[in-house]
Write a structure and sequence with these properties.
The chain has 390 residues and is of the alpha+beta class. The chain folds into two domains: 137 residues, Creatine Amidinohydrolase, Chain A, domain 1 (3-Layer(aba) Sandwich); 232 residues, Creatine Amidinohydrolase (Alpha-Beta Complex), CATH 3.90.230.10. The protein contains eleven helices and 18 strands. The strands form three sheets. Strands 7, 8, 9, 11, 12, 13, 16, 17 and 18 form a nine-stranded mixed sheet that branches. Helix 4 runs parallel beside helix 5, helix 7 packs across helix 8 and helix 9 runs antiparallel to helix 10. The longest helix has 24 residues. It starts with 16 loop residues before the first helix and ends with a strand.
Length: 390
């Protein structure tokens, strides 16, 4: 199957004024609901999705937004040389350098906006403890709104789904490039180069690419690793991968597939993948508005019924962060199931990582799905099933 790339001249999409207004209105409703006066949104080291969600500025070293309903947003940026591009990209926000201490600058702005009145402040994002203490010392106790913000991100707008759809296309392109470009002798580092080289010319950026390489006859790894090694593919290996390409911000696709290397699958690998395929199909048939986490976990019972288990999450939300619901299979559930029903507009990854009970052998399949009015749709086009490299 040939996966077509978008035209390289295409620019990353921008969100419409209506979409940005929707976000600000949703945040203002949250502020009013909690009886707050201001919200501080924080991000650092390219992490913290609330800042780009509200302003359009991808976080670099550090970014702080002061949001007050009815007033212009203030975006404080580190480093000083990042300010010019922040001013070009940020929407409806005044952009300044954060000064020697961005949080202290934000606290001064909050004091100014409060005009000497007592004010209640909410915080969204991974604000470090010293920064939170600066706000507390300046204004009194603050309210953590990160969980409430995550709930705002569960349901995607049509524009957000369109961006995720493009990210899925680029992720598919990377998987095809890896399959066609790799073979015996390819190192894990080179797999990453194949993946990234496929989407970089088209405006994509890396979210993650994880690999598991092991012998089918003598398996020693059941789930992709987060950091690559120099190990080379060998004839008779099995390769599982988890690929995610972002497009235009914190909007990644996610594709999970398994490949044998220049060899037919062993009976164990074939059995593991048959169960993974069945679990994926059953879960996909269950996910729809009103479906519960319990129903999803029950749909995956085929894994344990076959004598296998899982190591990775079975299902998780994605798009604007790693979002609820995060579910494990019956034998791997790490926490109580959430009281959260699936609803239209959610985007979730279904990714059965079926392993032997000793976690020495495993496969993985799955992808990002969009919950529609009557079920769910695939955002990826890369073929399902057990594939082959070389």
């Amino acid at each position: 199957m040939t996966i077509s790339a978008p035209r390289s001249a295409d620019a990353p999409p921008t969100f419409s004024d209506q979409e940005m207004h929707r976000r600000r209105a949703a945040l203002d409703d949250l502020v009013q609901e909690r009886g707050l006066d201001h919200v501080v949104l924080y991000g650092a080291n390219r992490s913290g999705s609330a800042v780009p969600w509200l302003t359009g500025w991808p976080v670099t070293r550090e970014a702080v937004v002061v949001h007050t309903p009815g007033e212009p947003d203030l975006l404080l940026v580190q480093f000083y040389n990042h300010v010019p591009q922040a001013r070009a990209l940020a929407r409806d926000a005044e952009v300044r350098w954060g000064g020697p201490d961005s949080i202290a600058t934000a606290a001064n702005e909050l004091r100014h906006r409060s005009a000497g009145r007592s004010a209640r402040v909410g915080v969204i994002g991974p604000l470090p403890f010293p920064g939170a203490q600066v706000l507390v010392d300046a204004l009194g106790p603050v309210v953590d709104l990160s969980a409430a913000y995550n709930r705002l991100r569960l349901t995607k707008s049509a524009e957000e789904v369109a961006r995720l759809r493009r990210a899925a296309e680029l992720t598919d392109l990377s998987a095809a490039a890896m399959q066609h470009g790799a073979g015996p002798g390819t190192t894990e580092y080179e797999l990453g180069a194949l993946v990234e080289g496929a989407y970089l010319p088209h405006g994509g950026s890396n979210y993650i690419h994880y690999f598991a390489l092991t012998s089918m006859e003598r398996p020693e790894q059941c789930v992709p690793s987060q950091w690559p090694s120099g190990r080379r593919l060998e004839v008779g290996d099995v390769l599982s991968c988890e690929l995610s390409t972002s497009y235009g911000g914190d909007y990644p696709g996610q594709l999970l597939r398994t490949f044998t290397v220049s060899a037919d699958p062993t009976p164990l690998v074939r059995d593991l993948h048959a169960v993974a395929d069945e679990a994926l199909n059953r879960i996909e048939s269950v996910i729809a508005p009103g479906a519960s986490p319990e129903e999803v976990v029950q749909a995956a019972d085929v894994i344990e019924d076959a004598g296998f288990t899982t190591l990775d999450d079975l299902v998780h939300g994605l798009g604007g962060g790693y979002l609820p619901p995060v579910l494990g299979s019956r034998s791997r559930t790490l926490q109580p199931l959430p009281d959260l029903l699936f609803r239209e507009g959610m985007t979730v990854v279904v990714q059965p990582n079926v392993t032997t009970p000793d976690h020495r052998a495993g496969v993985q399949t799955g992808e990002l799905l969009h919950v529609t009015s009557d079920g769910c749709e695939r955002l990826h086009a890369f073929p399902r099933g057990l594939h082959r490299i070389g």
